[in-house]
């Protein structure tokens, strides 16, 4: 096994000073002083200098005189040219600044501000939005839970005459899929089918398949596969990995095995390390260690090299089954192959000791993690809090919460669930109530785990009225 290889110039013409010549003067007579009859066959005119191109200092604007000669005429100077140039430069600077502001709003995922800045730009006659700008805004609105605004922006784009592409349609499909608006996404798919230049491709179908998998609508998945086959669109490895993961989580192992077998014999969507990680994670989380190890060897024989995440999956699986010798062997193997231990690696080890309340080894791992300068995160402290609670060291739960505050660790729903778990373990229902109230004050939405922990704690104490209130609150939250 080997370590995967990550894996305007211009020509300068010098200025030549003009040669000294005797100045030539000539007179142009007014039209009324010339008496010319039709019988005149010749007229004496002053000798005229024939200037070479670019030699005469005046501009090259010419007009025909009364004599029929071409005479030079200086261009009328533009009034207030400096003001006009200043205004032009100021307009360019304004556009540049507002465009940068739009890009910054998109990067910071500030969808409302981004739309406001975009409207300011669109009102300017000199600004012409491009396809890439609309693409970024559609993606941003989809990620921000604003699929209807994405549709409005898309329709406005069409009204302004911008040519639509399959990429823009696919971005709109993704916006609906991200927000579980599957019927609207299929409606956009039908629109694409009727446009010769915007036909759906493998990326469009992959997004729809993922949405159907996440929503457990497996019949629609099969329908999409049939459509792809009719259109001669071959699923790629990403598509198949999405389906593998979905079937595995739903326990549809026969369908999962069918997809995986097809990948192993395919020449266009062969399994990759992501496929390997998906299968190993599936059996590892189910505690089926032997099957996990068999698949690991199959993928290795297939020529797929593991990565850091692969080893972290193995460590997590061994830790949950308390197979500490194998867990240590994987970590040593990572060092041997120069694979770095990551935050996830340490978190997996801390979680393994936390589940059994092994505070000593848990603390040792945490100290080593910080000594190596590894970044601790929300999951690290969730594991520590649960570990100390399982060990009955509730004073260390308090110190861990305080340390998390000093390190500005994000207090999300998982964090508060860990603290509520510790309060329930300590049978401190008053403190548990205070944590629950603080959780709501911090706008962290309680989930099913939160209510299950609290209901179980109150049920043990026979507080049935409180149990009833929490169950009603949980049903209301789920309905919302």
From TrEMBL:
PROSITE patterns, per database record: PPR
Coiled coil: none
Keyword annotations of the record: Repeat
Source organism superkingdom: Eukaryota
Annotated InterPro entries: PPR5-like (IPR044179), PPR_rpt (IPR002885), TPR-like_helical_dom_sf (IPR011990)
Residue ranges of PPR repeats: 130-164, 165-199, 201-235, 236-271, 272-306, 307-341, 342-376, 412-446
SUPFAM superfamilies in UniProt: TPR-like (SSF48452)
Molecular-function GO terms, alphabetical: mRNA binding
Family under the similarity heading: Belongs to the PPR family. P subfamily.
Protein name: Pentatricopeptide repeat-containing protein
Record organism: Lithospermum erythrorhizon
